[in-house]
Write a structure and sequence with these properties.
111 residues; alpha+beta; Alpha-Beta Plaits; four-stranded antiparallel sheet; 4 strands; 33% strand
């Protein structure tokens, strides 16, 4: 995982914002999360992912996809669906999912 944000891409593309609060039961979470991060990289149209977690437990993951087809491939992946179910059953106290079409995007880097 990088400390730099994912670069800006030429719009339009999609951002999937997944905001979570986890439960105390995190058995198997780390391994499954690592597997999902590897699996999503094989989805044609996947552009990258940003993560942040505060000390209080609020986590935010933003995944970027080129188009709706890429989103649908990831959404319907069977291994991803199984991980989603396990998340609802064990790992998440609550979560919110937002899917947004990005219409403007730019990057700034201090030299």
């Amino acid at each position: 995982m990088s400390d730099a944000p994912v670069e800006a891409f030429e719009p339009p593309y999609y951002a999937v914002v997944f905001t979570t609060v986890r439960t105390d039961d995190q058995s198997g979470y780390r391994e499954t999360n690592a597997r999902m991060e590897e699996l999503v990289k094989d989805v044609p149209g996947y552009l990258g992912m940003d993560h942040a977690q505060n000390p209080g437990g609020l986590g935010i993951t933003v995944a970027y996809f080129r188009d709706e087809d890429a989103l649908m491939r990831w959404r319907t992946d069977l291994e991803h669906r199984a991980a989603q179910k396990r998340g609802r059953d064990s790992w998440y106290q609550s979560y919110t999912l937002h899917v947004a079409k990005v219409e403007r995007s730019h990057t700034f880097t201090r030299s």
